[in-house]
Amino acid sequence: MRQVGLDEVRAIARGAAVLGTGGGGDPHIGALMAAAAIRTHGPVALTPLAELPDGAVVLPVAMMGAPTVMVEKIPSADQVGRAVDVLTRHLGLEVTHVACIEAGGVNSLVPVAAAAELGLPLVDADGMGRAFPELQQVLLTLTGVRATPMAVVDEKGNCAVIDTVDNRWAERLARSVTIDMGCSAMISNYAMDGAAARRGLVPGTLSLAASVGALLEPGVAGEDPASAVAAHLGGRVAVRAKVVDVERRTTTGFARGTAVLEGAGEHAGRRLTVDFQNENLVLRDGDHVLATAPDLICLLDTASGAAITTEQLRFGHRVSAVVAPCDPRWRTPEGLALAGPAAFGYPDDAVLLEGVPA
Amino acid sequence: MRQVGLDEVRAIARGAAVLGTGGGGDPHIGALMAAAAIRTHGPVALTPLAELPDGAVVLPVAMMGAPTVMVEKIPSADQVGRAVDVLTRHLGLEVTHVACIEAGGVNSLVPVAAAAELGLPLVDADGMGRAFPELQQVLLTLTGVRATPMAVVDEKGNCAVIDTVDNRWAERLARSVTIDMGCSAMISNYAMDGAAARRGLVPGTLSLAASVGALLEPGVAGEDPASAVAAHLGGRVAVRAKVVDVERRTTTGFARGTAVLEGAGEHAGRRLTVDFQNENLVLRDGDHVLATAPDLICLLDTASGAAITTEQLRFGHRVSAVVAPCDPRWRTPEGLALAGPAAFGYPDDAVLLEGVPA
Fold first, then answer.
1. Which ipTM value was assigned to this complex?
2. What CA–CA distances, in Å, run from B295 to A192, A194, B77, B88, B286?
3. Of chain B's two ends, which shows fewer C-beta atoms within 10 Å, N or C?
């Protein structure tokens, strides 16, 4: 895939929502924003991570905030490019490439919209290989790229440029500003050169999203789309179930909560739960932990295979929980400290898929 | 007064704490910071507001946050100058003068420390003629000076540059960042040229503070220092009383609460209250309102005349409440809308001293 046009947007939206593991934003909104920008400015050129020159100036762009709010507060075209503009002006550098910080229905496609608006190529990569709720939770933190200076802009014209002593402080200050801006804001951060991008990003995320999305295309998806997705991602369908309750609260700028599932098949009669904070983080069978972050826990509609984001989860959904292995760098002690269950305040040890080649 | 040396620092600290109406920070801390900077860099030249050239580049500097926290978290010398440095770099301008945004024990003297650190003259003026809790509450808002771009820096090395659509949004975003930084931060905002400063600042505030401070010098203050201060400020001693209770909470970044006073003299046997939010805002005799912001409500120690800041207020203090007229621009409908009792959520109409020449 060398460019992103309207067809690719549809496929990426579908697939990135799977990789977003419940977070990363509503794919319908991401697709609307990217399609509008492509209709105005034409398709976006995609640069493979390996082809990025050392001296490239790469600026990721994303939406920050609670997905529950994002679905009601869609950014304007102007706002999409402005975060990059503000950061570029602050850095005094000429940006050469836009990038994705995470995979997700909105956050894989906001960068497409921004790249189209700004007339720049987009890097086929992302900072996580999935979505995570907090902004320090990227592989770039492990490879020493600073989150700041970072720009936070809202739809009203307010902006902040934040510069912090570490990436956790960037999360803290940017989160508060985002909450003030109405729980949803556009950000640009982790400015880096091409060499740093090649070291710290996950290659091929947009292509992967598009290929997952292709599996789920209406007419292509077979009887059991979840199994097809699981096989494609090297994972497995851990659970088939029905959603029977969703406890949900939007606090400290996140969509937090727990979904309660009634198991089917091998889990028939079992009470399963999924704890989420924007993303699905811990999957349990009663007290027994089946899977945790940083592995991917994707809730797919059992019939269509469509990813269900945490803000869409509701009673009656028939879901298949696909568990897929995360990028191997997340499985190191440093990676687990940054994005394992303890990083989210859960008492559990990380439970990761076994037999995954590193 | 053409310069601020160590003697002037002591007098300003004493007098600015009176003008701070309970807020603006602890004068002891302000004096420590200014004296340390003057000992290292020498006295600070004071520029009368009227002598400021049109093309001057004036940057106010202040501490933002809850005074209850400031007394335990004194900024470093490095932090004092850094807010101005960050804003200067962002603006790409060469700053010619430092200024005070409000009168108060810390916020009249932090600019002295900053001016000494930066080797710049200080303007003999301030933005309010008193202290107020929120950053849009300056006469500059009425004369059309933007609060942003503004810099917020902490002692750890974190900073944010905020740019907002109006001055109220600047308060909102900067307050959240300040809370994250530990409820106390150094700020620089309201960058303006000399002409705008002459239009929007209150002239002579530092000289006035020094002259009030001189009245209160040990050995100079007579039997009734509060009456001497009231006469000097064109006000009156409204109440003599003893503090019998202080209800206090540090919420949303402010020191809020109510002091309960037991009246003496003409108010003997009466229960008086002072509502505060960093500053003293409403003085009541039972349900009867005696005085409100924007007029100055200064609680002075009856014996020494020393101003008592809201965070120092405690059971047993014998106090004299001096009410003094605010700058006449605060008495306009626009001024009252910005800083009258309703602006702080109190249900009362403004009650202002009568017979004050405008």
1. 0.84
2. 53, 59, 33, 34, 20
3. C
